[in-house]
């Protein structure tokens, strides 16, 4: 099965923090910009989630807590027992706008499920 890569998570985390810093600098110049405010909120959430993942990955490193890439069912509750798809996994998700299934990529884990980006559309949402 796939193992959550601690190095990769740490790299992602550094990238997110750089992006957050840039967004905050933009906000300093333009504090009323809702797009920047949304970006700041999203980045803050992603950073918090990535930090949690990093902690969980370090705890399970060396133990048998690896994610099997073919789990056919998703847990109905958010759990940190490694049953989630790793960030970057290609998945199918229902888009809230039309209820259709589309190819998407897991960008982050959220308390309710996943934060995905729809391939080819660039739309992001929590599923």
From TrEMBL:
Gene3D superfamilies: 2.30.30.140. Keywords: mRNA processing, mRNA splicing, Nucleus, Spliceosome. One of its GO terms (molecular function) is RNA binding. Pfam families: SMN_Tudor. One of its GO terms (cellular component) is Cajal body. SUPFAM superfamilies: Tudor/PWWP/MBT (SSF63748). Residues 59-85 are annotated as: Disordered. Coiled coil: none annotated. Its main location: nucleus. One of its GO terms (biological process) is mRNA processing. Residues 84-127 form the Tudor domain. It is found in: Nucleus speckle; Nucleus, Cajal body. Residues 60-72 have a biased composition (Low complexity). The keyword Disulfide bond does not apply. Belongs to the SMN family. Involved in spliceosome assembly. This is Survival of motor neuron-related-splicing factor 30. It comes from Genlisea aurea.
